[in-house]
């Protein structure tokens, strides 16, 4: 593929423009010449048609030509036209005068077709003319359509392969009907030859002009663009890294100077670029040194973090196994040391809290055991009291049956009533002690709830520590990924610890509610016993009155019988309450045992806080005294 320089391209563009311009001129001149030639031929063929109709009028007796004042043909009329002619001298004469061809068309019987009946040169052995005889005029041609309208037609056409300028003149009958047409045609070869010669002449002249213009344009363009070659050489040197050579022609005030100035700007930019690259390389080396130092520091921090995570993972593993006595002895880095201290402190607080819970559970176990024993004794004594009341009721019945033994039975009743009052007072004392024990249990339950809240806070702090560890691991990137996993496990352990604390809290809350119910039941028992004491005092008064006034014996015995019946019902109710209190005490004992088993899963070390031995001994002694007194 050919490659041209800038000069060659400018010359080629100029030549192309000249070629297009020349072709446009040739086309326009050809169009004008062709139009003039066409009009000239039409004028010529009109004059030749006038000569033809004159010959036609001379040789055809029935033909009459009407002429206009200016000599133009106005109308051709014929009486009739034959459908066959033996010779064609008339058309030959017309052809000689017109220097072309002549044809006589005659309409057929239908009047819709025009057939060639007389043709020039048909008398000779001209096969083309002989072949055209009898051929109708093509109905699709403009000439046929004009003749059908009774109008003349002129223009270009092709007859038997030759292009002609043709003039068709209609022939009318006296009635005004078109019965034929006379046709004069001259060849267009001469006109085409003139036009072709003109085109060749213009083309040769234009080619010579373009050649001279191309040579001159090449010379002028080369002289004008010579500085571009020098600037191009400077640009190549600049592209090769030569920034020392000054770009020439930068002081010119034309486009060349503007281009040279732009190249000079590029040279200065290349100089600045080289300087900036040196500065960037220096900065890169400094950044690389800082990066290596930071990487070394990060690796050291990752090592310290790995030590911390391993220690925390080991401690958390022991914690998950129930060992709350674990402590991290290995010191961490300065920024991680608070994490170790917080972990050790959290474990210590958790162990202390669980130790407190264990001791409280032990104390609650002892208290509930004593409460259960007291409730059983209360239930048994209430049953005994009910039996005593039944015996009293039977004695009163015997009193009504044996009035004569009123005095002895009254003394016996007085004795029984005094005994019942003592029992009721003793039972009231036991109930008050049971209420006090229940109050202490309720207080212990609230303390356990506070301890559980502390454990929940410890679990929350552990979760926060694990979250902080996850954040630090995320900041450490890939080096802290393992620590992130450990922190996630720590959060899971803290979550499980919180769930366990919630379960313990639910158990403690249930126990507190049951203890509250027991306190209310025992208080009701005390109130009932208080009423029993009051009733027994009334019975004692009644018995004294019986001894003092025998006349009221019957009435007093009846009232006493009613009172004993009410006392029996109250005693039965007390027995039911005592049984409920005993059942609640047994349930509380079972729950406390479960709490002890739950706390016992953890290894608390020295953090277990059990009740002091003196307090335990005093509690046992008080319990034994209550049991022996009752």
TrEMBL record:
Task: Identify the domain of life.
Answer: Bacteria
Localization, per the record, is:
Cell membrane
Please give the residue ranges the record annotates as the region Disordered.
Answer: 280-302
- Which membrane topology describes this protein? Multi-pass membrane protein
One BP annotation, GO = chemotaxis
SUPFAM superfamilies reported in the protein's UniProt record: HAMP domain-like, Methyl-accepting chemotaxis protein (MCP) signaling domain, Sensory domain-like
Q: Which Pfam families match?
A: HAMP (PF00672), MCPsignal (PF00015), sCache_3_3 (PF17202)
Q: Looking at the UniProt record for this protein, which Gene Ontology cellular component terms does it annotate, in alphabetical order?
A: plasma membrane
Gene Ontology terms for molecular function: transmembrane signaling receptor activity
- Which UniProt keywords are listed? Cell membrane, Chemotaxis, Membrane, Transducer, Transmembrane, Transmembrane helix
Q: Which InterPro entries does this one have?
A: Chemotax_Me-accpt_rcpt (IPR004090), HAMP_dom (IPR003660), MCP_chemotaxis (IPR051310), MCPsignal_dom (IPR004089), sCache_3 (IPR033463), Sensor-like_sf (IPR029151)
- Please give the chief subcellular localization of this protein: membrane
| Residue stretches making up the Methyl-accepting transducer domain | 360-589
Q: Which residues cross the membrane?
A: 6-27, 198-220
Q: Residue ranges of the HAMP domain?
A: 222-275, 303-355
Q: Does the keyword Membrane apply?
A: yes
What's the name of the protein? HAMP domain-containing protein
Keyword Transmembrane helix among UniProt keywords: yes
Matches recorded under Gene3D superfamilies: 6.10.340.10, Methyl-accepting chemotaxis protein (1.10.287.950)
What family is reported?
Belongs to the methyl-accepting chemotaxis (MCP) protein family.
């Amino acid at each position: 593929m050919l490659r041209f320089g800038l000069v060659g391209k400018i010359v080629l563009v100029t030549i192309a423009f000249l070629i297009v311009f020349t072709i446009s001129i040739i086309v326009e001149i050809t169009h004008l010449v062709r139009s003039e030639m066409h009009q000239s031929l039409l004028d010529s063929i009109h004059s030749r048609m006038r000569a033809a109709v004159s010959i036609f009028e001379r040789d055809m007796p029935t033909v009459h030509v009407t002429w206009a004042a200016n000599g133009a043909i106005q109308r051709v009329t014929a009486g009739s036209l034959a459908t066959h002619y033996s010779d064609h001298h008339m058309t030959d004469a017309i052809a000689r005068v017109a220097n072309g061809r002549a044809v006589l068309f005659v309409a057929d019987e239908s009047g819709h077709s025009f057939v060639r009946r007389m043709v020039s040169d048909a008398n000779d052995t001209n096969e083309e003319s002989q072949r055209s005889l009898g051929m109708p005029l093509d109905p699709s041609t403009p000439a046929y359509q004009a003749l059908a309208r009774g109008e003349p037609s002129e223009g270009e056409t092709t007859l038997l392969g030759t292009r002609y300028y043709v003039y068709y003149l209609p022939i009318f009958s006296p009635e005004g009907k078109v019965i034929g047409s006379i046709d004069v045609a001259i060849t267009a070869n001469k006109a085409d030859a003139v036009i072709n010669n003109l085109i060749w002449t213009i083309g040769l002249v234009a080619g010579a002009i373009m050649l001279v213009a191309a040579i001159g344009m090449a010379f002028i363009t080369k002289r004008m663009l010579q500085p571009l070659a020098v600037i191009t050489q400077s640009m190549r040197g600049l592209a090769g890294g030569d920034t020392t050579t000054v770009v020439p022609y930068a002081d010119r005030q034309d486009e060349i100077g503007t281009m040279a100035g732009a190249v000079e700007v590029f040279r200065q930019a290349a100089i600045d670029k080289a300087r900036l690259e040196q500065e960037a390389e220096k900065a890169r080396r400094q950044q690389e040194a800082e990066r290596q130092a930071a990487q070394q520091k990060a690796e050291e921090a990752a090592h310290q973090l790995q030590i911390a995570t391993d220690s925390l993972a080991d401690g958390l593993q022991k914690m998950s196994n129930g060992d709350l006595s674990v402590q991290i002895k290995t010191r961490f880095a300065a920024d991680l040391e608070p994490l170790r201290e917080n972990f050790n402190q959290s474990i210590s607080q958790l162990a202390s809290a669980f130790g407190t819970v264990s001791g409280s559970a032990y104390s609650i176990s002892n208290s509930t055991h004593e409460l259960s024993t007291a409730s059983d004794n209360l239930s048994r004594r209430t049953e005994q009291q009910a039996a005593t009341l039944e015996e009293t009721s039977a004695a009163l019945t015997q009193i009504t049956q044996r009035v004569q033994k009123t005095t002895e039975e009254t003394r016996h009743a007085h004795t029984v009533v005094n005994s019942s009052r003592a029992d009721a007072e003793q039972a009231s004392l036991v109930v008050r002690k049971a209420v006090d024990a229940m109050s202490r249990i309720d207080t212990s339950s609230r303390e356990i709830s506070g301890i559980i809240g502390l454990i929940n806070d410890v679990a929350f702090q552990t979760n926060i520590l694990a979250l902080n560890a996850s954040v630090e691991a995320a900041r450490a990137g890939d080096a802290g990924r393992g620590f992130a996993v450990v922190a996630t496990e720590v959060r899971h352990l803290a979550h499980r610890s919180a769930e366990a604390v919630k379960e313990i809290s639910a158990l403690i809350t249930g126990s507190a509610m049951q203890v509250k119910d027991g306190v209310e039941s025992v208080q009701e028992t005390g109130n009932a016993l208080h009423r029993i004491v009051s009733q027994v005092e009334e019975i004692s008064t009644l018995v004294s009155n019986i001894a003092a006034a025998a006349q009221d014996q019957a009435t007093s015995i009846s009232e006493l019988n009613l009172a004993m019946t009410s006392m029996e019902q109250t005693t039965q109710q007390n027995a039911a309450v005592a049984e409920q209190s005993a059942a609640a005490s047994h349930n509380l004992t079972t729950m406390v045992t479960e709490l002890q088993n739950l706390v016992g899963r953890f290894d608390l070390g020295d953090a277990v806080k059990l009740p002091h031995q003196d307090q335990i001994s005093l509690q046992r002694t008080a319990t034994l005294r209550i049991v022996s007194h009752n």
